[in-house]
Amino acid sequence: MNDNQTAAIAPPTAAEAPAQSPDRAKPAAESVPAAAPRRHGPAGRFLRDPIAVAAAAVLLLVIATGVCAGLLTEHGPNKAALDAVLADPSGTHPLGGDGSGRDVLSRLLYGSRTSLFAGAIATGVALLIGVPTGLAAGYVGGWWDALSSWVANLFLALPGVVVLLALVAVRGPGLVGSMVVLGVLTAAPVFRLVRGEVKRVRGEPYVDAARVAGLSDPRIMGRHILRVVRVPIITQASLIFGLALIIESGIAFLGLGEADRASWGAMLNDASVHVYDNAMLSVWPGAAITLTVLAVTLLGAGLRDAFEDAPKPPAATRRRRVRGPAREPAVRVDTGALLVVDGLEVAYPAPGGEAAVVDAVSLRVDRGEILGLVGESGCGKTQTALAVLRLLPVGGEIRSGRVMFDGRDLAALSERDVNALRGRRIGYIPQDPMSNLDPSFRIGSQLVEPLRAHLGLSRDAARRRALELLDRVGIADPARVFAAYPHQVSGGMAQRVLIAGAVAAEPDLLIADEPTTALDVTVQAEILDLLRSLRREHGMGMILVTHDLGVVADICDRVAVMYAGEIVETATSADLFARPAHPYSAALLAAIPDGAGARSRLPTIPDRVPSVHDRPSGCRFAPRCAYAAPGCAVHPEPTTHRDGAVRCVRVENEVIVWNR
Amino acid sequence: MTILGRRSVAALATAGLVVAAVAGCGGSNTSKGAGGKTLTLAAAADAASLDPAKTAGGNMLAYLQPLYDALTTVNPDQSVGPGLATAWTYTDPERRHLRMTLREGVTFSDGTPFDASVVKQNLDRMATSNGPSSFAVATVAGVTVTSPTEVELALKTPDPALLFNLGLVAGMMVGPKAFADANAQPVGTGPYILDTGHTTRGDRYTYTRNPRYRTPAAYPFDKVVIKAIPDTNARTTALLTGQADAGIGAPARMDAAKQAGLTVTRQPGQVTGLWLVDRDGKIAPPLKDARVRRAINHAVDGPGILKAIMAGVGTPTTQMFAAGSPAYDPELDRRYPYDPARAKQLLTEAGFPDGFKLSLPSENAFVPAIYPVLAEQLNQVGIKVEYTPVSTNQLSVQYFSGRFPAFMYVWGTTQNWIDANALLSPTAPTNPFKATDPVAVDLLARIAKASDADQGPLYRELNAHVVEQAWFAPLFRGETVMFSAKRIALSNKPGQTFFSLSDYKPAG
Amino acid sequence: MITFLTRRLISAVALLLVVSALTFFLMDLLPDPGRGILGVSATDEQLASKRRELGLDRPVVPRYLDWLWAALRGDLGTSWTTGLDVADSIGTKLPVTLSLTLTATVVCALFGIALGLFAAIRRGIVDRSVHVLAVAGFAIPGLWVGILLVALFAVRLDWLPATGYVPLAESPVDWARSLVLPVATIAVSGIAAIAQQTRNAVATVLERDYVRTLRSRGLPLRRVLLVHVLRNATPPALTVVGLQFIGLLGGALVIEQIFALPGLGSLAIGATSQSDVPTVQGVVLVSVCVVVSVNLVVDLATGVLDPKVGMR
């Protein structure tokens, strides 16, 4: 397995793992650079997050005002003076007086103690109960899991407010009691969260490995599992803390709090009485609660991000399309060709700028020609294919270059015009059959829908046509598949359905993204036969994205090899397999394990593809290249070579007998 | 879901009609549209039950008075006049046998004649009903029918409040055939009957004329609607917008009411103050000393609190008895002016120059804004207050079980005996430490047996004694503020503490 | 389908039993309700007699079983404090709470789902605003929003009634007016919460491969969004709306208190503070029933929408 081999060579860090997985179904993960150039510990990452730092600062401020309340105001929080009842702000009472003549500022400052205390109790109790029970339930399972889950569900269904009310009625008002009960009630979601995470992680190989290595259960829990669950716990804890503040204020508002404890909720209670004569009274405690809960929540999010090392969601600002000047065409623009891609650049927003995942890619497909687009995972071949369809994942953009289809630049067309071409003149076969059919709709309707939209067929005509298509792609019982839901058919069947959908309108160009990857070998061969015959019947041009050199050898007329976002070599299939011109192409071919024959997955070359940020300024393959020379420090431009082109400085000057 | 009940069905059925009606008159003023023959009242609480045996007095009276006559009538000046009983007399000097002569020719709205056996059945029922008004006939040992128009009540002890109480819920006569279901289908001898078709429990109660009523002229309205709007602000808004003709409004919005053309009528209400119940110093020894209790009276600024926190709606007082009642003495209100220096001096004389600690309950339902001020003012003279919060449902249990040596309470009845008995009698449930003194016991015994005319001076003597001994530290007597529409003339006599249905007349 | 329903019903019944028993035993710890019912002037004899009348001289377990047996027959008993039939008083309060919670849920769902959809499709500034609003909506206490709205729209501008409830039957216009501020109070956080969840649900669906494939077939974006994306994002959105509704039932307590709406929340507060066990039990029972039914409806709807469950 490709994955495991690479893993053995370079154990992936969490951040790099996505780039190493086969580039199926995860174009975003493949292309969006996952990590910032330099790595920091959680603390460093936290300090680089302005929102989290601001939230922490606000929270520290709240804590500080609570602790230093006595220094910040001369008034006691419960000291009432009749002449200060509903007093306007003044020198002695900067925020005025409340309905009992107490200093509003003082109560605001002292109130933060109550709020933080309340939050701490509720969060503490919830975690103390929820985390251990959740760990045990998830790790041990069995009757303990069943029992504790049942109890948790029960707690979730309890009318919490009534329980709190009843408690106050029984025990009398009390902050600690109410918050302990709130903690117990909110332990249930914590339990569920921890249990779920542990159950998920428990099956992971490294936990198994730890167990095989003889680590005791508590140590595994402490060392491996707790590390994994800490991030969701942090988030959950911050939510509970915020919730506790709000509930505390609600209890005090309902008049069930302790009368002589300064509390923001009690202040709101007092303010609500005076809504007719002093509406300002509610502003301070209300704002204090909001700000504190906001700070706690955002702090939780910041901590989560810092520990998770998660990339910030790309700042997906919607930019106006800026198209730079087209680069020097490497392939002559030939209006006679079906598709000419010229200097295509696709970029995604990334921390500190943009990352070009496809860089100066130029391609050409003639009518009736099958072009293979090969390369390792993450080299940008799927991105190139999607760019042609103008269906890049969120954030992806064509930054420059042209995509000339039948004389029109797809990159410059309006969405509406491109859409008119999709399906009708350009067909698309995705790689994973099961994830590319809408699970909620019957297969038939998914075929009929575009037919009616494109060809203007009647419902019956479209249905007949769809059944014909299903028959054409080799489905034995078209009527049954037509009426089935996607989950009711096999993967091979689904791939045939997708091919039927792609060729339904007899397009001129077919873009097939690893159409056989997910299928077993026999089905693969049948699908390739199908594509071949479709090409024969309709004279379709085709781009076949694959990392399977066997498929290339089998069906492609010409091949484009991609590496780190660039095309490094284009050649006829025969030339490439016989005499690869670029060291990378040669290495690919060389790495096919003996005996596996040509029909093998793209093999492994030592070391890994540089990430978008670590690309050398010169030849991108140079660090892995056995033939690297001083001249390779300059980024090579493609040069004509035989019937194609190659991007390597050494090809022009020396005839290298590549290692084949 | 049958519990959704008739109301939502009715809602759906009538929604269209009401839209049309609203569109037609351009507003939601239902009472004006009824041509002046309808009185719409906004009540401060929902009717707990329309069966007197299950109902307390106070706010509930408004719901019951249209339906039921009581044996006696409580006049605006708190004196007792004839009701279904036209005359009565105590047949023994001990005042333990009361003979009542009943009105003749009265029938219930279901046609059942009213007679002495009905009275016996009702009083027996009230005594055994375990209802909120049962306490009012607790002194009645038995009822004897001596003739169809005469009953005799035997009392366990003399009860100067009995005739007063028989003018309220405890004396309301329910038609015997309706005993089983008096809440849903009430039957009385009152001026109105319940229009169940236009009554929605929890929301509105509609009363129409009782065709069998003997003097309909005393009640000029053909229809009475009572809307239950417990929330003060909502009720005030309803009054300001004319959705109801009269009701208790929010004192803070008195000016708005006057601007809106409403009549604002103020009536004396309940007394807010500290009850220094541990007068024997069982759990708070300092309270045993009358000088300490007087010091507390001097230390709290009733007028200041009234003005600052209660918007001045009320009058400062130092006595628990109702203004205008026989026991009331305006001179006594000058006994304890706000004077912290004097309070400190009294504490020093009592041996507490540095004050002492006092454990008090606090609550959040009645007068929450006063507690911080009270603590601060007592602190000024050296008394350190420690509050224990008590939830609303535990107030009466905890306050009257002897857990606290003193507490803040809002108290108000209007009848002197009820007050005297509840506040001062060593056997009253509301006297948790059973504290008393010989003077009070003696006066209570003498009042119980005194004729109505002789009671007044004795009450005043008792009142003076209680104030002098500072068994309480009253802050102020609150006021209820009535907002009423201009089209309603509201008869209000000095000292009157609540309105009876007969007090409402059309204006002009 | 039948097994699914049966299992859900069994777990619902078990839940009702346990919750009702828990509240019953909890309420049994409350102080003697006699004083609250009979008033402070009641004598000890009257209190003892009241205890006997209410059956409080018997142990708690048989009393619970009696209550349960009666409840099973549809008899929730009569309130200890008002003597009213509990089912009747819930019947008069429930419409208020349902008016509030259903209207609020519908408003939150309509605006929230529309906003969430918009945010997921447009991303950018809308997306980030929804996220900020969702966090802020969580942080702002509803009761403060309520007070602010009352202060502004009722007191300052005098556009709407500050508090109170007008039954639909009395005046639909006033009924609607009486609900505007309470519903707005809930909507401040509710819309943002639903929008955020909908946005996430839609964004997840939008990243699905089949969406790209459908678009590669040349289907107009609008059609893909309105038919395929919406359809697949509906179950999670529905779940969120269901949770929101359940949350509102609890939150109605504070909202009803601010706006003096005579609903179940006010009934619960009043009954709890008066140790009125039959009423509290009734409210709890009805609330749990509503919660269970909402969950069931959401599950059924989700099941119907998911062809894999095969419930259609």
Automatic annotation (TrEMBL), chain A:
Segments for region (Disordered): 1-41
Taxonomic superkingdom: Bacteria
Residue span(s) of domain ABC transmembrane type-1: 112-300
Main location: membrane
Stretches with biased composition (Low complexity): 7-19
Classification via InterPro entries: AAA+_ATPase (IPR003593), ABC_Ni/Peptide_Import (IPR050388), ABC_transporter-like_ATP-bd (IPR003439), ABC_transporter-like_CS (IPR017871), MetI-like (IPR000515), MetI-like_sf (IPR035906), Oligopep_ABC_C (IPR013563), P-loop_NTPase (IPR027417)
Residue ranges annotated for the ABC transporter domain, each copy included: 341-589
UniProt keyword annotations, A-Z: ATP-binding, Cell membrane, Membrane, Nucleotide-binding, Transmembrane, Transmembrane helix, Transport
GO CC aspect terms: plasma membrane
Gene Ontology MF terms in the entry: ATP binding; ATP hydrolysis activity
GO terms for biological process, alphabetical: peptide transport; transmembrane transport
Cell membrane recorded as keyword: yes
Topology within the bilayer: Multi-pass membrane protein; Peripheral membrane protein
Pfam families with a match to the protein in the record: ABC_tran, BPD_transp_1, oligo_HPY
Coiled coil regions in record: none
Transmembrane segment boundaries: 51-72, 116-138, 150-169, 175-194, 283-303
Location of this chain's protein in the cell: Cell membrane; Membrane
PANTHER family found in the cross-reference section: DIPEPTIDE TRANSPORT ATP-BINDING PROTEIN DPPD (PTHR43297:SF2), OLIGOPEPTIDE TRANSPORT ATP-BINDING PROTEIN APPD (PTHR43297)
Entry similarity comment: Belongs to the ABC transporter superfamily. Belongs to the binding-protein-dependent transport system permease family.
NCBIfam families, sorted: oligo_HPY
Name of the protein in its database record: ABC transporter
From TrEMBL, chain B:
Highest taxon listed in the record's lineage: Bacteria
PROSITE patterns tied to this protein: PROKAR_LIPOPROTEIN
Residues of the signal peptide: 1-23
A Pfam entry, by short name: SBP_bac_5
InterPro entries: Peptide/Ni-bd (IPR030678), SBP_5 (IPR039424), SBP_5_dom (IPR000914)
GO molecular function, one term: peptide transmembrane transporter activity
Recorded GO CC terms: ATP-binding cassette (ABC) transporter complex; periplasmic space
Domain Solute-binding protein family: from-to ranges: 80-426
Keywords, in A-Z order: Signal
Protein name: ABC transporter substrate-binding protein
Organism: Embleya hyalina
GO biological process terms held by the UniProt record: peptide transport
Automatic annotation (TrEMBL), chain C:
Keyword Transport (UniProt): yes
PROSITE patterns: ABC_TM1 (PS50928)
Transmembrane segments annotated in the record for this chain: 98-120, 132-155, 175-195, 237-260, 280-305
GO cellular component terms, A-Z: plasma membrane
Cited InterPro entries: BPD_transp_1_N, MetI-like, MetI-like_sf
Keyword Membrane: yes
Pfam families: BPD_transp_1, BPD_transp_1_N
Topological category with respect to the lipid bilayer: Multi-pass membrane protein
A single BP term in Gene Ontology: transmembrane transport
Subcellular location: Cell membrane
Residues annotated as domain ABC transmembrane type-1: 94-302
Keywords: Cell membrane, Membrane, Transmembrane, Transmembrane helix, Transport
Chief localisation class: membrane
UniProt record similarity statement: Belongs to the binding-protein-dependent transport system permease family.
The protein, known as: Peptide ABC transporter
